[in-house]
Amino acid sequence: MITASFHGESIMRYSAFSVFLNALRGNKSWQPAWRSPVPKNHYDVIIVGGGGHGLATAYYLAKEFGMTNVAVLEKGYIGSGNVGRNTTIIRSNYLLQGNNPFYELSMKLWERLEQDFNFNAMVSQRGVLNLYHSDAQRDAYTRRGNAMRLHGVDSDLLDRNAVRQMLPFLDFDNARFPIQGALMQKRGGTVRHDAVAWGYARGADMRGVDIIQNCEVTGIRRENGRVTGVETSQGFIGCGKLALAAAGNSTTVADMVDMKLPIESHVLQAFVSEGLKPFIDNVVTFGAGHFYVSQSDKGGLVFGGDIDGYNSYAQRGNLATVEHVAEAGVAMIPALSRVRVLRSWGGVMDMSMDGSPIIDRTHIDNLYLNAGWCYGGFKATPASGFCYAHLIAKNEPHETGRAFRLDRFARGRMIDEKGVGAQPNLH
Amino acid sequence: MASLIACPHCGPRPKEEFTVRGDAGITRPTPDAGQEAWHAYVYLRDNPRGRHKEHWHHTSGCRRWLIVERDTMTHVIYSAVDAATIGETV
Question: What is the value of ipTM here, to two decimals?
Fold first, then answer.
């Protein structure tokens, strides 16, 4: 069996061969995918938040930048936050200069992720279609598609017949919102979200990163204008650099160093239906309202819509939004009216003031910030981790993450993809 | 989010009749207050995990602006008063 040795421990490399061999042994010799270490007194880097972005950051710090004396502190368990609550969509169909190359970097990292971290993340490039319903919307999507192509990203503008061949069950002749066509990114798709957390956790752990679960940061200790460590539910832990990646709870952590953020926390709900036979092959979004759907390999329809619209840290939302999402879904696919919803849940979104994220240094020299992902954080996970690790390791932003500065609001350099201004619940 | 908001004019009404605007605790600076004050006003938010005062408009009711205090962690509503009774926030 192929094994790699790190820190004196033998870690099994996953392969078809290892699955076969373990089956012969009655599946009794599988090892935990990561350790549960007792925190050390001091780390070179502490990452606050063991979500997708925090774990990816730790992974790339260890793998690409040679920093292995790193801890990831997670107040719950790995995968309990937004990385396990999203609708698993990946895409890089962004319009603006600061966004597109970043999300395309993410897409390229997704494309080789499974080989890179030796974990089956079920990356499925099944294509993402954004439907358009009017001439004006077609023009807007043409512009977006052209912007993508200028950035070297594939995009296809489909007419009504092309969409009908792919998705014959859509309501093409809806009286109010007839479907005229779609903008398609073939390389977009879905990824098994939990496996992303697990794969990054395992890859970081095997390179020496300590992943410490059930460890809530309750305070940040400072001396002479620098962070010296964090108070946690498992005691004080010292650090050379502190990196925040707390998503919806970013404000709570930033408050500990009196840093006020351009962020509001909002609840976003998502849904999964009972298992059905395969019928939706792609990710499809409704252009006339906020609704998007794909079908998981288990057969459940995974779908979602808008945020509820009010500040919330509750990880649960309201029935009115459930009704709104269902109405939009049925307007797009009338057959959905017969489908039963199995589960719904909510996640806390760190909604920024321009709808774009922040990966930057802060007013404290050794404190770094990764926040403001709104409801688009999952697709960004690899690039966010990569660019954040670059920033932490080199104190210099990675070239594709350069635009996501904390001071862009003060400088008037907003990256407002939707063009709605400083109103977080509209992004 | 609680299902009902007790409008001081209309009584307990479904929250779907209301439109949320956001943080009611922010004071609009004077025109000459300087860039920093205006930046804070437009972009920075307390975003508390707990009690939060917000502007809600009773769009489908009396069409009055209310100040609703509620808990962002539990969604409990503590109070709803007409914004005019609080007065100018200058």
Answer: 0.95
